[in-house]
Amino acid sequence: MYLGLDLGTSGLRALMVDENGVPVASAEAHYDVSHPHSGWSEQDPADWVRACEAAFSDLQANHPADFAKLSAIGISGHMHGAVLLGEDGQVLRPCILWNDTRCAQEAAHLDHAPGMRDISGNIVFPGFTAPKLLWVETHEPDVFAQVSKVLLPKDYLRFWLTGEHVGDMSDAAGTSWLDVGARDWSETLLSQGHMRKDQMPRLVEGSEISGMVRPELASSWGVTDVAVSGGGGDNAVAACGVGCFKEGQGFVSLGTSGVLLAAKDSFAPDPATAVHTFCHAVPDRWYQMGVILAATDCLNWLSARLKRSPAELAGLVDTLNGPSGVMFLPYLSGERTPHNDSAIRGAFIGLDVGTGDAELVQAVMEGVSFALRDCLEALRATGTELQDVLAIGGGTQSPVWVEMLATVLGLPLSLPKDGEFGAALGAARLAMVARGAAVEDVMTQPEIGQTVAPRADLADAYDAAYQRYRALYPAIKDALA
Asked: Which Gene Ontology terms cover its molecular function (predicted)?
């Protein structure tokens, strides 16, 4: 048996699969995010451990025979977080998360430092890890002076599981400390961020063994000789879950945030586009992606305002008849691709006295779709083209939203048949490869339930609406200045 752990922002999911990669059992546990100040987003790493213990207890209690056969664990996790450990291995402060924007000033400073973009292959975004440490150095110097190790969130779970300080290339690529082409820590980038290589974990590929489960844990769970694979950042591991690792393959994710990801056979960065270029979780592969900070989170926000569930709101838009008269900018937490602007904020444009809930929902769906079109155009500016695009994430439960997105992107979108195909499955697959399975044998694409084609009759109307949407960003930015 193989176990995939997916450490999400709001909860942990554990998925157990057999030797053929077929799901056998799953368990979930949840935790909160703290927002002590405007723009801050933090979590207590101890909550992740408690969630992991709860998930393991659930699986052990309800599937004891299968759990006893556990051979390896793979780990996926939200990227860019900063878990700071002292010499004694204790956590020094709450983890600063990926969607925390407090260090925009430090990110801008680092982004202009010599070699940063050339070596890392990326803009230094405010959500990345390196500027977080500069913020700590300035605002919490006593904490900074005690930092012995910096771990990414999923790697703190690994530390708990194995006692080892180990990371992987795909997750480390989002720190601004990694030479993404060479797949190793960069002394130059670390120095620019006032860090040292001995403060970094040892790096392995996502499909390699990173360590073994500690004897005391293994004994309490009734298992022996359980390996922990390198695992990876959530998007790279999700790509493993949908078999996306060859040039031309990609997926679009309508999750809390939005992602348009393209697998790459080589390292071909273009930081100026604000496209992320990261190591994949399998050797000798990379990927590029455009990221928007709020996708279904925009609908969640509207749900809280209108006091109606997201599912109920989505149901108000049941047919696609063309662009709404209302436009929405989905910059509720700033934006990454293509603007790299942590200060920009969202807006509704074109409201009138007759605007109802359905019009607001459609505008939100269209705004998110247009933002993902921005990501597609940024990817194309790097020379990347997509031929085979899967659509995943909670937003794909709305057939109208999927049809709208296909039309806005001008790409057919394939929806996997019901089943497991996300980051938890990708993590389990990396565990299988760590124990000897071949990447090509286990990183297969899911069975397709439906392919949604763009609406040719609405393509021109949505393209014109997208051009209007693009003109709104500079206007809103000027208004907020």
From this structure: ATP binding; D-xylulokinase activity
